[in-house]
Amino acid sequence: MTDVPNNGSYNASLEDTVWVEEVAFIDSVPRWIAMTFVFLVFIGTWQLVTSLGMVSPIILPTPWETLQDMIFVGKNLLTGGYMLGSLWITIKEVIYGFALAIAIGFSLGVLVGETAFGEKAVMPYLVAIDTMPKVAFAPLFVAWLGFGIESKVALAAFIATFPIVVGTAAGLHAADDNARMLFKTMGASRWQTLVKMKLPTGLPQIFTGLKIGAVGVMAGAITGEFLGGGKGFGELIRVAASQLNTPRVFSLILYLSFVGLALYLMVQWTQRRLVFWQKETVGRYDG
Amino acid sequence: MSAVLAHDYSGAPVGAPVYELTHVSKTYARNSVIALEDVSLTLRKGSFTSVIGSSGCGKSTLLKIMAGLIPPSKGRVILQEQPVTGPRRDIGMMFQQATLFPWKTAVENIVLPIEIRDGKAAAKKALDKAYELLDIVGLKGFENVYPNELSGGMAQRASICRMLITEPAVLLLDEPFSALDELSRDMMNMELQRICREQNATAFLVTHSIQEAVILSDEIVVMKPRPGRIAEIVEVDLPRPRTLDMMTTPKFGEIVDHIRGQLDKGEDM
């Protein structure tokens, strides 16, 4: 008894009473099962709504029709049909647009984030342009650059540039006073401070900008095709919609989303390799 | 202020003057606030000096001037017979945060000052020395670990190595352990004392803790605010090496009380 002081209430009959931490059900379910569940609920509701005739088939095709059309489009793409050519055009627009946005966005971001002149004199204009509805510039780009892919690249880049500027500028401000003071005491030049400290410190923010840009560049390319014609995937969607071929519209959108997803994942993959020290915040948009 | 000359206790700062400040004042032009007024101070080789005072007493301004980060408005600042006109490699600095860069391993962080000043090749040559330093601070085996995997105390040990890699003549310590818990803090202070003795380093510590100042220092500069000036320079004639037990001795308590009295006189905290 003297071994267990201040514990008089402890006795043998209570020994079996163990307080177990309760685990929430969702914590015990693997992610892929949870995701599949949501997918099935979604598809099930969709099938139900369409097969009960609650919505006109012209407005909303059944999941089955959509899948069949996806197979058709998939075959066309795999056999090098006309759709592959269209998809390739859109992919080129997205890649060129993103590359252009990165080049311009990063340069402007460094100008704005690193120099007092950029912050004072250039930033206000960038903010002003950023608040404009950028899609409205599409007709101008068509007038300047024609109906080819140039006008789509321009719109895509135009939309994607701003998040990259903001991300880069924010990233360059991310270093704390201690790090700045440390670099000063080491006698670092402005260039060294930028390259060896501010840029690496700001990589997470820069990549957040790149991810938002990657989403925007896709939207820009398709909007450009809607408004400026051409032969891209956006044009296929527009034509299918005008023919009330809704299953085709749906399947084309799904294939486009694969392209967008691929671009996003590429950025994320690069981020994970480059910013290996950053803690993962799974499932977050800015992760 | 230059009254400190003869000492008969062991470990006294009997070395030659390393760092000399004469009648240093600093007025910030922006709001014409007098941050420092007529500060004169001499750090001797191998001595440990602390500065203590309430916020606004100008101790961080003083530290920045000593580090060559900002120029004084008046007065002379001389380190190793050379006026300080900017950051120098014979000044080592340490901050409250370890400020290790997460994309570099411990050892890469430590040779960073060399990389900045002399380039990558020189930094590579300094690696051996970095390994040695890591061994001295008890981080053997953590050379190639990234800072994310180090505890707060370990990170501060690594930042001690980074400060020592250029073999600075003076160590400027800006509340280096105040972010640590009290137990690690005491331990790190004893480590710091040992390292300073082994390297015969001249150290200058800014702190908020009277106990910390007394246990580490040969001299304590008590400062008063508005305008920032030296109220008194207190000698600490406890024997060296200091141990944590000394914190319970009457002598220690006496010195702490004396400094607290000085600080209380300096208006509101």
Q: Can you put this structure into words, describing what you see?
A:
The complex is a heterodimer of chains A (287) and B (269). By secondary structure, chain A is mostly helical. Chain A has one domain: Orthogonal Bundle (MetI-like fold), CATH 1.10.3720.10. Chain A has ten helices and no strands. Chain A has helices spanning 31-51, 63-78, 82-114, 116-131, 138-145, 149-172, 177-185, 190-228, 233-242, 246-274. Chain A is flat. Chain B is of the alpha/beta class and 269 residues long. Chain B has a domain at 1-90 and 173-185 and 205-269: Rossmann fold (3-Layer(aba) Sandwich), CATH 3.40.50. Helices cover 33% and strands 24% of the residues of chain B. Chain B is built from nine helices and ten strands. Chain B is globular. The A-B interface holds A 176, 178-179, 181-188, 192, 196-197, 200-201, 275-277, 279 and B 67-69, 86-89, 91, 93, 95-97, 99, 101-103, 112-113, 115-117, 146-148.
Task: Outline the secondary-structure elements.
The complex is a heterodimer of chains A (287) and B (269).
Chain A: H1 31-51, H2 63-78, H3 82-114, H4 116-131, H5 138-145, H6 149-172, H7 177-185, H8 190-228, H9 233-242, H10 246-274
Chain B: E1 17-28, E2 33-44, E3 48-52, H1 59-66, E4 74-79, E5 82-83, E6 91-94, H2 106-110, H3 112-118, H4 120-125, H5 127-136, H6 152-164, E7 170-174, H7 182-198, E8 202-207, H8 210-216, E9 219-224, E10 229-235, H9 250-265
Parallel strand pairs in B: 3-8, 3-9, 6-7, 7-8
Antiparallel strand pairs in B: 1-2, 1-4, 4-5, 9-10
Helix pairs in contact in B: 8-9
